[in-house]
Amino acid sequence: MKQVIVITGASSGFGRLTANALAKAGHTVYASMRETRGRNAAQVADVEKFARDNRVDLRAIELDVGSQRSVDAAIAEIVAERGCLDVVIHNAGHMVFGPAEAFTPEQLAELYDVNVLSTQRVNRAALPQLREQGRGLLVWVSSSSVAGGTPPYLAPYFAAKAGMDAMAVSYARELSRWGVETSIIVPGAFTGGTNHFAHSGRPADQARVAEYEAGPYGGFGERIMKAFSAIVPPDADASSVADAIVNVVDTPFGKRPFRVHIDPTQDGADVAFAVIDRVRSEMLHRVGLSDLLHPKGNG
Known about the structure:
Strands 3-2-1-4-5-6-7 form a seven-stranded parallel sheet, sandwiched between helices. The chain has helices spanning 13-24, 41-54, 68-82, 105-133, 155-175, 206-214, 220-231, 239-250, 269-286, and strands at residues 4-7, 28-33, 58-62, 87-90, 136-141, 180-187, 259-262. With 299 residues, the protein is of the alpha/beta class. 47% of the residues lie in helices and 12% in strands. The chain contains nine helices and seven strands; from the N terminus they run βαβαβαβαβαβαααβα. It has one domain (4-293): Rossmann fold (3-Layer(aba) Sandwich), CATH 3.40.50. The radius of gyration is 19 Å and the shape is globular.
């Protein structure tokens, strides 16, 4: 069934791959990004070209996840044009790399804003529409780092992703009685096909970085990057994340998986999450709230 979908952070990487794949699957897709008339103008033109060449319903839309006003305007525009909104995909995110101590508190706040607070802005704009419809789907693009192997020098990013994942789990329970479903996508490390590593931020306090380089962690960052590259299989394809999201969207209501793992490095997150999610579910059973584990069918 054709659905109206908005994806955050869709100028490149997982977001753009997912937008293309969902559009080719027959859905109406809004690939959201900021600065559509500025630095992302070329991406907007490419979205339009893809839509023409493939005869699909794919549209770029201005949406800055750091601005509630921008988010509100984008969601209102989508609902005004289509009369509904079926799927919201929380994909926007940013990575940083370096010794944790060398990042300023302001940098961590900015990273948390992009990876966590952005989802709150989008939810506050979109959820009234989904709740009014009595049906909808939230897809959260998490990270295997939340429960799997966590190499050093990525602590701020890992912490932010853990915060987002915790929000996703809590929201799932608070939305199920409204008929809004949740699926959490858990990608592992992909060193190609996305801009995560290429565009990752660096610590502002370079003097602290120099102290680490001059001490027992000299050359450690380079070693970590080489280790990452070595464990990612050469055939690891970022489009597999997009394919997984398409499968979730196309699965009938009430049968969608709560988590989907796409991890070429097999860092163990699937094993850990199986335990974590079961523990959380058991608690709901114990307190008589097991109905929250399944979305209510509201037609």
